[in-house]
Amino acid sequence: MDSNKLSFEEAYKQLTDIVQKMESGELPLADSVAAYEQGIKLKAYCEQLLKEAELKIETLKVSNTGE
Length: 67
Hints:
Blueprint (H helix, E strand, L loop, with lengths): L7 H17 L4 H37 L2
Helix pairs in contact: 1-2
């Protein structure tokens, strides 16, 4: 999976799916570790997208108040 091509919504959905699978207790240990690693990557990616969105919003606020 190349998370850099996912939308926020797609990445977040994959992350919640991973969490549900891990919480169910049905995954073998090796699969749980792999899912955890993938979840960490997806979490970081979602946080990056949110920070970018926040910066855009702040830029728009500053642009609108400066006029």
